[in-house]
User: Fold MACPF domain-containing protein from Allacma fusca.
Amino acid sequence: MTLDPNIKTIYPVGIQQLKSLKESLTVATTSYIKIDINRQDKCTFCKQIGIASFKLEQSDGAAEIVRTEENPELTSASLKMIEIPDRDKFPSFAQRHMASGEKGVGSAYQSYKAGRSTNTATILLLGMTGAGKSHTINNLFTKEITPVGEGVSCTKDIVEFTIEMPSENAGISNAKIKVIDTPGFGDTEDGLEFDARVLANIDRLFELRQYKPSFIILAVNINDKRLDGKFAPFVQLLQSMKLQLMKNVLDKDHPNLVIVLTHLCGAVPKLQRDPNPKKLLVQKIVHENLGIPNVPVEVAENCVDDYELPKTSAGDYFILPNKEYFPRNLYQSMVRIAQTVDPVGHEIVNEAYPKLQKRNFPISKQEHPIVEVPASDVIASDIMRMKISTNTELGDNLSVGYSQLSKAERDLCRMEPTEFSYKLSILGYRNRSDLPKTKKDVIAFFREISPDKGMEILLRKSFGLEAPNFTVDLYIGRAFDLTKDRTTSFVVLSPGTHTLANTGCYMPQYIISSCCPEVKFTCNIAHTAQEMMQQRMKELKIQMSCSKIGFNFSNREGYSIFSQGSSNTLTAVYEKRILKLEIKHNAPISQELTSAVEGLPTVYDRHNQANVQQWKTFFNTYGTHYINTSYLGGSVVFTMSNVDGSKGQSSFQSTQGGISGFLKGIFGGVEYSDSSSSSSSSSFSRKNMEILVRGGNSAKASQLALSNNQKEFTDRLTAWEETIWENPMVTDSSVALAEVADVVNQFRSGVVNAMKVATEDLYNARLEYEAKLAEPTKQGDSDANKGGDSSCLTPETLISTPRGNVPVKFIQAGDIIIDQYGRP
Assistant:
């Protein structure tokens, strides 16, 4: 094992490898290394390594060898690397080199016997559509290996990424990592035949290469509520894999499969804290359908940046809600399944983890188009169909409903009743009792089915099912007055008419909706209005100097100004989001705005009273910004009165543990208590606190204020969150803004510069008419003016006074005159 002097943490290794560590690591008899290992293995390790002292840390993971920065003289045995041929040429190569004692040959020989590659660690990515295979592998190596994000289309081919990375660990100079990304399964648009063809192509790919992948990462969304059952898509995928991939890809004798449950942070809080029941369920399903017991099941979060997950002190891993370290948990599972079977795959991945974070290695890409493989395709299609009969109760209902459609409505349907019934059966819907009952399940159903207009009509006539249409004001496209931190009633961009969105509910056609199961807790405490404005500007992501004096923010929930007294009022807001809403760039500009802008002057003149009034009227109506992003969900608003200003910040500030820390402050650290022995008055009433709940079921919401301990409140909060889909509201404290001037620039660019100058004056409280001194008309006037004479002012010139603008002819001795900033 070679220690790279540029890398502090070297390579986690399995416990069984400790015996060979001495042969590959040369150290002095001083404390040069740190061992992260189970404490019970301490004595064994001491004897094998032969060093007198070292630092031992408790861990439930694999052993970890760490180079200390204080001892640069630490060296390792120089291992000679050798070029290892591919599997088909390896037998003759091994006969010539086996006696050489070179490590690379021995590693390759063991991997060859296990049916793996002799010089490559191959990672095959499988998963249901939307599970996040690509995010998972990128997070594993903290490097974009497979492209993700907006503008990246979902792959319809098998795409192979190859990273050339010589491995000192394995002793192989031509070592590689291959990441094979595949199309997602269960995409109803592509159909079952395509899924079957993908599996057949994967099988053929590895059959030609004559080895099985080192690792198969199967990504599953942890929030999929229908994992189990004969007709569940996940079960169908497993049974298809058993029939199609068991010979050339899956390995039952030396399992190479790891299940990754993705999107953990989008799960309900209870599941986030303890995903073990879901892990055990998945293990059971895999065992029943693949015959592989105790398959490793790990949890992951795809969008680590969006959820702002904290990191470990060393910054190496993200801390998941269940306190596991990601991607260390996935990495360790991969290490464990390969360490005794596939030394090539094990050592290369072991070494890749730190190396890919520190260095750039060339990555090549090869696409394998999906082609027909007749024999395998037929077998896979049979198992994917699972011999499902279209003669189901729902199939009969669809036939009746279809007969009631007009010819024009039938022409809108892309599926006839037989095909539609088959699709529903595959997804687990065969009888009326299988149909969704709650609004949340109805939305999930329409999201899964993705019907066209004709199918919408067919579903309504056959089952009485309709996608929900949320009538709540979505705020999208509305004008926003930044100086007052509030929306106005006017519209900048028109969202359009409602159509069925891909999220399973009706949305305006110019709004992009996406599922966003996340939470946000806001409890900001300031000591001055300016400090509060800074906090709010940061929340709105507005880059602006906070010395502006034209801002007059009203009291906003989640923002409190504390004084030193005990009469402070604290507010905090907990938001549960379910949908993110964004306005499209091609949304039509409202006719109201167009008309208003057409009447604006192309210049801004603060010395022209009519000009200034035009700009003031415009900003009072349309503000300076508009809302381009908002969220649907529910919120819980806490309001606590009579808070001691000296204690409030340290007790309740949102940086002190979010909602959990806040609740701890309310309940005095009592997480559990016997409610039967508690006072009849809840902790909230005893703390002079009121709770206001928006969205969801009102009966569930009313129970929150009656909680007597933190666990009771958390359980009730989870129950309320499950009802938010029934009655969602806009969580208006979380919006994103864009400038109105950017919209105006699209149709009247000539006014934009004047608008920006007037906006700056608005921010600085200077958007007021300012009198202009009359120019002297003759030499006498000029001379008189130099002497302090005021004959250059006209009788009608307006002068600013505390009681307003007054013509000069009415100014009297002793009157106070103020400048443009209101100063005497």
Q: What stands out?
A: The first strand starts at residue 9 and ends at 13. The mean pLDDT is 78. The radius of gyration is 34 Å.
